Each structure stands twice: as structure tokens, then as C-alpha cells.
Amino acid sequence: MIATTWRLPDAPLRSSAVATKSIALLAGVGLAAAARTGLPVGMLYAVKAPLAFAAMMLLSIGYLQQHHPFARFGSANQITTVRALLVALLVCLIGEPHVSALAASAAAASVVVTLLDGVDGWLARRHRIASDFGARFDMEIDALLILALSVLAWQFGKAGAWVVASGALRYLFVAAGAIWHWLQAPLPPSRRRQTICVVQIVALTLAVVPSVPLAVSAPLAAVAVAALLYSFLVDTLWLWQRDS
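^ thats the sequence. predicted structure below, dont judge the formating
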């Protein structure tokens, strides 16, 4: 999540975080099992979805101590954990049968994740527990949601393979930063960046809805990709000029 050394947080923060994540994991096991019963997913779905969520939580908890200067995990991070669980369930729809029931489920999960977005930030500000960890946790869940939706839009035949650029660009940008270190410099807060993130999620969610035809979903996805390319170009030029 954040470029620093991974280590388990100290108590009581560790206990608070582990309790939240454990409860969410149990809920994930139940939801994945329910999906296995009610949706045309493969036999492994009930296993891979909880495992995906557990991996996400294991990765995130190692960066909690250094970037969350509070004794408790907090309600804001609990909401983000719920969002992470839903995104894990959505991610694991990739590779499942290309049927409308799964496309509708993916869109519905995305709507819930999106509605919860902002609630965590509001709670953090209300209870004065905003942290770098919380902000990055929230951003990484948004990025993974966009990647999953872009792959699903392609999987369900709602756009060409080019739509995956919506989800991949952010990770390519991070990878490029390992080569050109000036790309790792912090960017200033940007309303443009926040708006385009929302545009990505809304456009891709609409694109995977079964009742939205290809004649509509493909242009929606294209607009989202174009907006994201513009945003990354602006940020890259800003970082390059700052480094010059």
C-alpha cells in the first residue's frame, strides 16, 4: 500500500484491526458461499473470494502502524474494510461464466462500494481519526475496483480489450516509478483526479449492466479511458516539470 517496511502493528491497534478483518473475513466466507448457491459461479468461487480478501487484508495491516497514529482501527477503516470485502467478491467474478446474472451482480456490488465511498472519509473527519493509511487504503480499493470492472466489461463483451487500460494505467504508472523515480514524488490534492476516478467507476459500472447495449457501453468505456489518459498525462507532465 505505502512504500515502507511491512510489520505487524503493536497492541491494541493490532487487536482492533485483526478483530475487524476477522469478522469481515467470516462475512466474506458466508457471502461467497451464498453466491456459490445462488449464482452460476464455479466450485472454487467460495474459496478464492475469501482468500483474495484475506490477502488484501494481510498486505494492508503491515502498513498500519507507521501511517495510522491512533490506538484503534476506527470506524472509517471498518467501512473501507467492508468495501474491500465487496471488491474482493467482485474481483473473483473474473473468469467466471459470461452470464447476465453475474454481470448484474458485479454492477450491484459496484454500486454499494461506490455508495460507501465517502462515508469512510466523513467518519474519519467526524471522529478526527483521518490518517495517511486510511486515505491510501481507500484509494487502493478504488483502484482495484476500477481494474476489476474494466476486466469484467471486457469479459462480458461490453468493450474491447482496450477497456482494461482504465484499470491498468494506475499500476503501470506505479511500476514506471520504479524506473523513473521522479514519478514517485507526491502529487498535490486534485479535484480533477477525484472527479475522473468517479467517472471511471460510474462509466464502467454502467457498462457491465446487462441491459446496457454494446452501442452504449463501448462509448461509455471509451470516454472513461480517454479521461483517465488525460489525467495521467497532466500528472506526469507536472511531475516531469517539477523534476526539471
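The domain at 13-243 is CATH 1.20.120 (Four Helix Bundle (Hemerythrin (Met), subunit A)).
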